[in-house]
């Protein structure tokens, strides 16, 4: 596996890359992981790790090669490019060394697409199949969010992306729309695989009074919780959360809990200044995250219109599995809109009145909220159960290798 992010990162790409490698090990496979020192979503190297080369063999059958990289405290467009380039440069000697291991498959995760040339060359040199798994269309997202604005650079980057993607043996992504986008970039449909971000299906805990988070927050029995839990970055459009909390501050029975880390958190804290109905929590450990989701009465899923079909929020799977309704900002026709419309309310980007009104409607109509939440859970069981997704991954891997 060639992935910028990996366990022990708790959110996003790192979480899923780590769990995927564990699944491979459980099926008798061996894996070498080339990754960075963990830094996401707080954009700082984790405590207990040092920003230098390191090898970790604590898990049988898995060798993790960690490489140093530049981690900007406040990531911008140019700083992100340097961040990715520093990782690619640092991985060159490690990837060269691993050629002697002669892997059967090189599994590369986007981001970072900058790794693609190295992955493809390494694959050709040792006769390995090359599999590209797209978690984010980072090139499209960078220009869609305005992080990079040069027209000539956009043409160059999109052309390079198309050329590289077409040369992988398999290209997978996490939603139907994102797989369709790969096809529009010239990838042969026979190479495409849908591999959604999964969730461990556990029964939701409906004991509101016994929920540890409600106890820790000192919430009264009748208080309704509107929860956002996940990465706080630039793709999320988090300012709408502060706006909703401000509009509903008149409701003493509604509180907002915003949990996570990321480059967008300081701005969100600033937007919420003076709001007594808002509580911030740091990113929570994996073993209590399901209980955090269960404390919600309504889940909140903001997203910028400019990245609507370029990313699929990984936090959506946990929301659905919790059996609670969702209020999402999503453009019509996107995967998020399709799912959210069945399991809650989908609001058009920019319509802050409708976002706050949808939250209030679900709070005030508990039967509707319950029906939406159960439809979401049924969707998660049918489509996002970790066992089923991993079975699809293993079968595709066996088919690719021919054994």
Automatic annotation (TrEMBL):
InterPro entries: Glyco_trans_4-like_N, Glycosyltransferase_grp1. Keywords: Transferase. It comes from the Bacteria. Pfam families: Glyco_trans_1_4, Glyco_trans_4_4. Coiled coil: none annotated. SUPFAM superfamilies: UDP-Glycosyltransferase/glycogen phosphorylase (SSF53756). GO terms for molecular function: hexosyltransferase activity. Residues 11-198 form the Glycosyltransferase subfamily 4-like N-terminal domain. CDD domains: GT4_WbuB-like. NCBIfam families: PRK10307.1 (NF007640). This is Colanic acid biosynthesis glycosyltransferase WcaI. It comes from Trinickia symbiotica. The lineage of its organism: Bacteria, Pseudomonadati, Pseudomonadota, Betaproteobacteria, Burkholderiales.
